[in-house]
Amino acid sequence: MSSFFGIDTSNYTTSVAVYDSDNDIIISHKKLLPVKKGEIGLRQSDAVFHHTVQLPDLVGDLFNEYKGDISAIGVSSKPRDVAGSYMPCFLVGLNLARCLSSVFHKQLYTFSHQAGHIAAALHSSKRMELVENKFIAFQVSGGTTEALLVSPSENEVFDIKIIADSLDLKAGQAVDRVGAMLGLPFPSGQKVDELAQKSNKKYSINPFVKDGNCSFSGIENKCHSMLSQGESAEDICRYCIDYIMQSLRKMTKFLLNKHGNIPLVFSGGVMSNTIIKDTFTKEFNAAFAQPEFSSDNAAGAAILTFIKESRK
């Protein structure tokens, strides 16, 4: 049996996974980092502490479920595939991976958190053939709102170039700020999605997009104004989601016109939103990561490790 162990310690989730390539099965265990009620984020020092506490238990749980051997180890070591990309929380996973690699004499591969998101999205949407093709990957979460031009790479699995971005707030930050305004728990994406689906409103929005880059800075003020005017939480959440969706639609059309009609893949916590997923699947034939693999996860690192090993 060929199985590959992945670790990811992002800013809000501790995650470990095994990819069994013989049976194409992923076993994943993950846990959100605790955030105090009313707060909308964590300091890096707190994230490092919580990863250090949570990671041993998650590894234990994973290998209580999975009893097989491991062929190689992969870990997210940095946020993005660009020079200087660094975040202290990834050191927790990287240091554990280095120790396990030395003790058990297993090959260790390091990847970016960004590449892991893409790999998990391709596998969970059953679009792994795109590993050998050019496509556009959107990553939309609290930490990033980016469109990436992804091409095959001989040395790495992917060659990744940012082709569009948010000029200010990230989509997930906007969602979480609206959620905090409404007294929802952090992260607020799932609750905002549920409330938005209960609204009958459809908002006509012409968002700001320049050269494919978007802006979400106006969402919080508008939603605060709606709340002060007595509008329902359901309608406020719907406005927030519609604004993000219309922004992403405008970005998508611009990028397809610029780069050609190439496949689209969406991932990141915000892309678990039902309204956006249903709309873009119909309009653009876009592929979406399954919800459990759209948010932060270690499955991508495990899959990338399998790909690297299979190319040896």
Q: Which sequence of SSEs, written as H and E, runs from N to C?
A: EEEHEHEHEEEHHEEHHEHEHH
Q: Tell me the strand percentage band.
A: 15-25%
Q: Unreliable segments (pLDDT under 50, ≥5 consecutive)?
A: none
Q: Trace the largest sheet across and list its strands.
A: 3-2-1-4-5
Report, as a whole number of angstroms, the end-to-end distance.
Answer: 17 Å
Overall morphology: globular
Number of strands: 12
Radius of gyration: 19 Å
Mean pLDDT reading: 95
Backbone structural class: alpha/beta
Count of helices? 10
Largest sheet: 5 strands, mixed
Helix content: 40-55%
Chart the SSEs and their pairings.
Elements: E1 3-9, E2 13-20, E3 25-32, H1 44-65, E4 72-78, H2 90-104, E5 107-112, H3 113-124, E6 135-140, E7 145-152, E8 158-165, H4 171-181, H5 189-197, E9 209-210, E10 213-214, H6 218-228, H7 233-259, E11 264-267, H8 274-284, E12 287-288, H9 291-294, H10 299-310
Parallel strand pairs: 1-4, 4-5, 6-11, 11-12
Antiparallel strand pairs: 1-2, 2-3, 6-7, 7-8, 9-10
Helix pairs in contact: 1-2, 3-10, 4-6, 4-7, 5-7, 6-7
Question: Characteristics of this structure?
Answer:
single chain; 312 residues; globular; five-stranded mixed sheet; 10 helices; alpha/beta
Question: What does this protein look like?
Answer:
The protein has 312 residues and is α/β, with parallel strands linked by helices. Helix content is 43%, strand content 22%. The protein is globular, with a radius of gyration of 19 Å. It starts with a strand and ends with a helix. The model has no long low-confidence stretch (mean pLDDT 95).
